[in-house]
Design goal:
With 264 residues, the chain is α/β, with parallel strands linked by helices. The chain is built from nine helices and ten strands. It has helices at 17-26, 47-60, 74-83, 99-120, 137-144, 158-163, 168-175, 217-227, 246-261; strands at residues 4-8, 31-35, 64-69, 87-91, 123-127, 152-157, 179-184, 186-191, 203-208, 232-235. The chain has an eight-stranded parallel β-barrel, surrounded by five helices. A two-stranded antiparallel ribbon has the order 8-9. Residues 76-240 form the Xylose isomerase-like TIM barrel domain. Keywords: Isomerase.
């Protein structure tokens, strides 16, 4: 099955569009998710001015912008429409007031953004994320329940699915009706300090190359084939060990992903 093989361009977030397009296409990708954040080349405040030209430069190098990682302010929606970017990716953050109150707050924020998504024709994609976020695919589906499917999508993530203890053969069919983007990265849990005599210890995710982690990319890509999903598959380029250049790891992971998907 052929996917739009894409990459999250956060590792090179300060590059202008022409340089980024050459780099991304040189790595073998034809799609890109662009960070639109205060620390990036395109900031939320400058998105209206910069994003259309930025994405045009990417397209000139054969790279299509699949989404932006940003927030739900109206200028970002307007910039995405002008630039032809179909989705804004966000996460559902949990605050100190607890899970239930946080989910209610995030839900209100999404409801408030619904007219913007409809009016500008730009989808909102919500990604599960370990830690202080709604961390499971089912949790995100519950969060989105009742919101228009055409405007609110799930960005399924292989690493965070595995960190939540889930199985892609279960979660991908659950989110199929809202599935917008599939993120591929991988992780293991590592102990952050020596364990004592007592049961327990402190653990944290450690992001590793695709073939090495808890997430089964072959199972995920096989499930996508069964579902007939042809949307973007985005490699996140997140690796905890800085000893190998991210570009080298991404080339290897893209080859592994294409092989697992049966792609040429």
């Amino acid at each position: 099955m052929t996917f739009l093989w894409s990459v999250f361009t956060k590792p090179w977030s300060t590059l202008p569009g022409d340089a980024l397009g050459r780099l991304v296409s040189g790595l073998g990708f034809t799609g890109a998710e662009i960070p639109v954040r205060d620390t990036a080349y395109v900031t939320p405040g400058e998105a209206g001015r910069l994003l259309p030209e930025f994405t045009a430069r990417l397209r000139a190098e054969g790279v299509e912008a699949i989404s932006v990682a940003s927030d739900l302010r109206e200028p970002v929606f307007a910039a995405c429409r002008e630039a032809g970017v179909p989705m804004i990716r966000v996460m559902a953050e949990l605050g100190p007031d607890g899970y239930a109150a946080s989910v209610r707050r995030v839900r209100r924020r999404l409801e408030d953004a619904a007219p913007l998504a409809e009016g500008y024709g730009v989808q909102i994609g919500v990604q599960p994320h370990h830690g202080r976020y709604v961390s499971s695919a089912l949790g995100v589906m519950d969060l989105l329940d009742g919101l228009p499917v055409q405007h609110f999508r799930v960005v399924w993530d292989a690493a965070h699915d595995a960190l939540a203890g889930d199985d892609p053969r279960i979660t991908l069919p659950l989110v199929a009706e809202r599935l917008g983007i599939v993120n591929l990265k991988n992780a293991v849990q590592v102990r952050t300090e020596p364990a004592g005599e007592a049961v327990g210890g402190h653990w944290k995710p450690w992001f590793v190359p695709g073939p090495e982690g808890l997430a089964d990319w072959s199972a995920a890509l096989g499930q996508l084939a069964e579902l007939g999903f042809t949307g973007p598959v985005c490699l996140s380029g997140q690796y905890s060990d800085p000893g190998v250049p991210v570009e080298k790891r991404l080339v290897a992971d893209l080859a592994a992903a294409r092989g697992a998907a049966g792609a040429a």
